[in-house]
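Comment thread on ticket #2218

A.B. wrote:
> Attaching the input chain for the structure job we discussed in standup.
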Amino acid sequence: MNLTEWQSTWDALGRDDPLWVVLTDPSRKGGRWDPKEFFAVGEHEINTVLADLKTKNLPVARQTALDFGCGVGRLSQALAPHFDQVHGVDISPSMIDHANRFNQFPEKVTYHINSSIRLEAFENNSMDFIYSNIALQHVEPRFSKEYLKEFMRVLRPRGIAVIQMISATLARKLFPESFVAAYRRVKHGHKPYFGMFGIPEKKIIRVLEQAGGEVIAVEHTPFTWRWVSMRFFVRKK
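C.D. wrote:
> Ran it. Output below, let me know if you need it in another format.
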C-alpha cells in the first residue's frame, strides 16, 4: 500500500468512528467514547511520560513539541499546558478536521496534514520534544523507518523523543509477511482497515543511532500474542 492509499484508508476511518479508531476499546465502538473522558486519558498519559522523563534524568526544554500521528489531537491537547508551541501531524485530513474542532488551545496547538515520508513543515533542529504513541505500529516499516530519521532531523541537539513501536513475537514470526498480506486482502477486501506492522528492536535502534540519536532506554510491554510494544527514549546527540 502506498502513502496515497494509506491516506485514503485513514481518512475513511477518521470519518467513520474517529475516537474509537484511536483508542479501540470494544465497549466504545460506534461513537460511544465520551470526548471528555477520551481526552482525559491523553492527559494522564502525557503526565505519566513527563514524570518518567524526570525519573530517567532526561530534562526536556519546553518550547516546541511534536505529536506524530496525532489523530484527533488527544495527546497534542495534553501537551499544550507543558509547552509553548505544539504541532500535531497526521496523514488523515478527516482526523485533522476533528483535531481542529477539538482544539482548546488554538494559540498554542497547530495541526498539519502530512502525506509525505518527510516532515516537510518543520526545519532541522526545531523541536525540543517528539512524542509518538500507537501510531507507527500502523505504518509499514519502509515508511516508519523514514519517519524515525525525520524525527532525528527535526529534533534539536539534546532534544528528547519518546517513540512507541512494536516487534513480532516468536509466534507471529512463524507467519511470513507474504502470507499475512494475502490474509489481509481476503479478510478486508477494499474496506478501510488498520494493519499492524512491527520492526525488530535492534533494527529500530540502528536506524535511530545512524540518524544521530542516542537510545537511552527501551521499555517492553506485552501487547498481544503476536506483538510486543516497545517504548524508546531517545536523545539527539
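A.B. wrote:
> Thanks. Noting for the ticket: The chain has a mean pLDDT of 92.
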